[in-house]
Design a protein that fits this description.
Helix content is about 75%, strand content about 0%. The protein is an all-alpha fold. Helix 4 runs parallel beside helix 7 and helix 5 packs antiparallel against helix 9. The protein has 10 helices and no strands. It folds into 2 domains: about 55 residues, Homeodomain-like (Arc Repressor Mutant, subunit A, Orthogonal Bundle); about 160 residues.
Length: about 220
């Protein structure tokens, strides 16, 4: 149980992050000043620095809050066909980004464009862990009794991560639209688990790939 001081600190952090998110959403960028942030959050000018260390720390914390929601919602669904987890987890990850794109586009433009040895590695680790869990669950449903080894799970997890980040970069720069982001994330994810599938699962995955491919083709 948190004491009064911890509760007050947590409340100030939440308020600062909420205001930062509002400023980013309203302006479409991250160029707000820390002084403006402190004033709108009704804290002293030093408080954001004391609690987050820097503006980069605030942006990173905002991204982490969004990623927590993605992990919770993206890993929650269950399916009678476990390899469908790749479809649902990919789709949910895209949908959550699209839902808050006025906030998350600027944040990911920042994340993908900086060298930040302090905050970026933690975000990347959490993202890789998410996609590794997706890979592990998807492969468990696609493989036969012999299963799949840890090296393959790690490899597919990194492939899913790299595929998604590549699409994410195109999306944040508006080179692809929301629908193309969603369709290509699912299509690519299914392609990555197909080589590991047993005969029964492979037939079902190929059917899903055909459906996803048709969607991608329509979008151009």
């Amino acid at each position: 149980m948190m004491g009064l001081r911890e509760k007050q600190t947590a409340e100030r952090k939440r308020r600062i992050l909420d205001v930062a998110d509002q400023l980013i959403t309203r302006t479409g960028g991250i160029e707000f000043s820390m002084r403006m942030l402190a004033e709108l959050a009704e804290v002293s000018p030093a408080t954001p620095y004391n609690l987050f260390g820097s503006k980069e720390g605030i942006l990173s914390a905002s991204l982490a809050r969004s990623l927590t929601r993605t992990v919770f919602e993206g890993l929650s669904p269950k399916s009678s066909d476990p390899f469908d987890f790749v479809v649902t987890a990919s789709g949910i990850a895209v949908d959550l980004l699209v839902e808050e794109k006025q906030l998350l586009r600027p944040l990911y433009l920042y994340l993908l464009g900086v060298v930040d040895p302090v905050h970026r590695p933690a975000h990347i680790r959490r993202s890789v862990k998410y996609w590794r869990t997706v890979a592990q669950t998807g492969l468990a449903g696609a493989c036969g009794p012999e299963g799949v080894d840890k090296t393959d799970v790690d490899a597919v997890g990194y492939m899913l991560f790299a595929h998604f980040v590549g699409l994410l970069e195109l999306w944040v720069h508006e080179d692809i639209d929301d629908r193309a982001f969603h369709a290509r994330a699912i299509y690519g994810g299914l392609q990555m688990i197909l080589p590991f599938a047993d005969a029964e699962a492979a037939a079902q995955i190929r059917r899903r790939i055909s459906e996803a491919k048709a969607t991608v083709a329509k979008l151009g």
